[in-house]
Specification:
The complex is a heterodimer of chains A (174) and B (435). Helix content of chain A is 49%, strand content 14%. Chain A is built from five helices and four strands; from the N terminus they run βαβαααβαβ. Chain A has a four-stranded antiparallel beta sheet with strand order 2-3-1-4, covered by helices on one side. Chain B is mainly α. Chain B has one domain (6-424). Chain B contains 17 helices and no strands. In chain B, helix 4 packs antiparallel against helix 5 (120-127) and helix 12 (283-314) runs antiparallel to helix 14 (331-348). Chain B is globular. The relative contact order of chain B is 0.16. Mean pLDDT of chain B is 90; it is low at 50-59. The chains are: A alpha+beta (174), B mainly alpha (435).
């Protein structure tokens, strides 16, 4: 199987969404779409599976909550009990209201940071990584749809031309 | 056009009758004299004979008799207050649902929100309870000044012996209190009726002049509401404990009010949709309502905890008594409502897909409404009935009575206009709303 792809450029997000729907309806396989900004509804039009990052966020939040409970218990109750404002520091539960803001912040901190790291890992983004977008104009005003050539290349190109594209390129994808 | 089904009408009338009987029973079964209370106390003391005998053995017999008399007198007043308080909690609860809906409705107009227009007639139906609920509450306040002891500062004898209340008498006195209550209720009802008139006029109109008037009046109303809601919470709830104050009380009551209101909007919409009306309401609209339920539940928890933690940490005697009473006498409802109002909606409504499933919203909604009823209960009861609280005939029938009136008024108002406010300029956006 060849790695040949057709890159169809669009200059409007509404035209792009319609094009994506048409291409999918004609049973062509869309490899990827590059856009300068998030296009609302594009994921559904492309038929992408829903993200599971919310589930990871919940789990990271739980980890943060448990960690903060352990941390506050270790610091304030076990290791170095301190009398702050006359509050008894003998048991965790008696001091718990004072720890709630920390527990909340840790939950948010863990969920947010680990979620971002997870997102980078899943998107294969890391420092000094070379950009994957096929055309620098996708960071400005162009939308690029990559379609795998599977069978008749000319037929695909004539089909794409009818979807409102402004430019078509055929390249190899590695 | 919605028709008030005879089944629902019968149900609401039945609720009113059952509730009325129960409330009447509650008033009749309250002890009529201090002597009756003494007998009651004796009976319960006999049940705990062991502790009672050790107590009396220590104390001098004359002093015990005197303190027992004073105690019986105190309990008598608390038990006398109980059916009144039960009625007050129910009246306030349904009134605040209606008032919260009005605030949410005004926010939709001012923010020129597109999604919520298909729900306008549902909200207007719920706010139709506002005039009736307002009158009922006002009558209740007038009766409070003479018939019961809910507001201790209304009693000249109490004030005569209390420096702190004397100093507040310029604000906390019966005529000014009733005047303020009338002013708030009148202001809210005026906006409600005006807004209703404007949206109906907009349906038939060809230009946007009504829409613009509605926008301006809603913005003015929100300013009015923000101030009066805060003052209403001091007057109607915080003044039950006239020594105690909390600076975020107005917000705290607001959070309870708005989350109950949005929940009720969701429940009524789901009911109407289930009956085949509101075909233009899709699950994206429900999703948005559920998001608001989720968000405001957490907002409520935030304020509940903020109020609690600052007072707990500072531990100033005159402030902390408020929570000491609640922890000593109301532990189960006070902490239980945090589970109902925070943990439950947090876990159930966190998932995006669950927010689109009607029966999830209905289940959570009912739990949230029960939780916020208990919230109001725990705001009011400790000051009026102290440790004599009990969720019994009085409390349940008060809720049933007011629920009956609420259902009757709300669904009756819904029949008066088409269920789609088709005149709004954003109506297409609302009908095609999807997420």
């Amino acid at each position: 199987m060849s790695n040949k792809v057709v890159q169809a450029m669009y200059n409007d997000d509404d035209i792009l969404i319609d094009a994506v729907k048409e291409v999918r309806a004609a049973n062509y396989h869309i490899e990827e779409v590059y856009t300068p900004f998030p296009v609302h509804g594009l994921d559904k039009a492309m038929g992408l599976k829903g993200t599971r990052i919310a589930i990871t966020a919940f789990m990271y939040g739980c980890v943060g909550l448990v960690f903060s409970v352990w941390m506050m218990n270790y610091m304030m109750i076990e290791q170095w009990p301190q009398d702050i404002g006359g509050k008894p520091s003998f048991t965790f539960i008696q001091n718990m209201p004072a720890f709630v803001p920390i527990m909340f912040e840790m939950t948010v901190f863990f969920a947010a940071h680990l979620m971002v790291i997870t997102f980078y890992m899943r998107s294969r983004l890391w420092p000094f990584k070379e950009a994957e977008n096929p055309d620098p104009r996708t960071t400005d005003d162009m939308f690029v749809m990559e379609v795998f050539v599977d069978g008749n290349e000319d037929e695909l190109i004539t089909f794409l031309k009818k979807t409102g594209t402004v430019e078509i390129k055929v390249t190899e994808k590695h | 056009m919605y028709t008030f089904s005879s089944k629902l009408k019968t149900l609401s009338l039945a609720l009113m009758i059952i509730g009325l009987l129960g409330v009447g029973y509650g008033f009749l079964s309250a002890p009529a004299s201090v002597d009756e209370v003494k007998v009651l106390l004796k009976e319960s003391h006999n049940a705990h004979e062991v502790t009672a005998t050790t107590d009396t053995a220590v104390a001098e017999s004359g002093a015990v008799a005197q303190s027992e008399d004073a105690h019986a007198e105190h309990v008598y007043h608390l038990l006398k207050n109980k059916p009144w308080s039960a009625l007050y909690v129910a009246l306030f609860f349904f009134f605040m649902i209606s008032l919260g809906t009005l605030a949410f409705y005004a926010i939709q107009h001012v923010s020129q929100a597109g999604w919520s227009i298909v729900l306008f007639r549902v909200m207007e139906g719920i706010t139709a309870y506002l005039p009736i609920g307002g009158v009922l509450l006002f009558v209740f306040f007038v009766l409070s000044a003479t018939q019961n002891h809910l507001f201790s500062w209304m009693d000249p004898e109490v004030v005569a012996n209390d420096m702190l209340i004397q100093n507040k008498a310029g604000y906390l006195n019966v005529p000014f209190f009733l005047g303020r209550a009338a002013f708030y209720i009148l202001g809210w009802v005026l906006y409600r009726n005006y807004a209703r008139k404007m949206t109906i006029a907009q349906d038939a109109s060809s230009d946007l002049s009504n829409y613009r008037k509605l926008f301006k009046s809603s913005a003015a109303f929100l300013v009015f509401f923000l101030v009066t809601e805060s003052m209403m919470s001091w007057d109607w709830i915080m003044s039950l404990d006239p020594h105690w104050y909390s600076t975020l009380f107005g917000w705290y009551v607001f959070s309870s009010l708005i989350v109950s209101a949005i929940t009720t909007i969701a429940l009524v919409s789901i009911y109407l949709k289930g009956k085949g009306y509101l075909e233009f309401v899709n699950n994206s609209h429900l999703h948005d309502l559920a998001k608001f339920m989720f968000g405001f539940s957490i907002f409520w928890s935030y304020l509940w905890f903020s109020q609690f933690m600052l007072i707990w940490y500072a531990n100033i005697p005159e402030e902390v008594t408020y929570f000491v009473t609640r922890f000593n006498d109301y532990k189960v409802p006070f902490l239980g409502m945090v589970v109902l109002n925070f943990v439950f909606p947090l876990l159930i409504l966190m998932n995006s897909d669950f927010k689109r499933v009607p029966w999830f919203i209905v289940t959570t909604g009912i739990i949230v409404l029960i939780g916020h009823y208990i919230d109001i209960f725990v705001m009011i009861m400790p000051a009026t009935v102290g440790d004599q609280w009990f969720i019994g005939v009085s409390e349940i029938s008060s809720v049933i009575l007011v629920l009956g009136i609420f259902i009757y008024v709300v669904f009756n108002a819904m029949t008066k206009a088409p269920l789609l406010a088709k005149g709004s300029p954003f109506i297409k956006e609302s009908e095609n709303f999807h997420y």
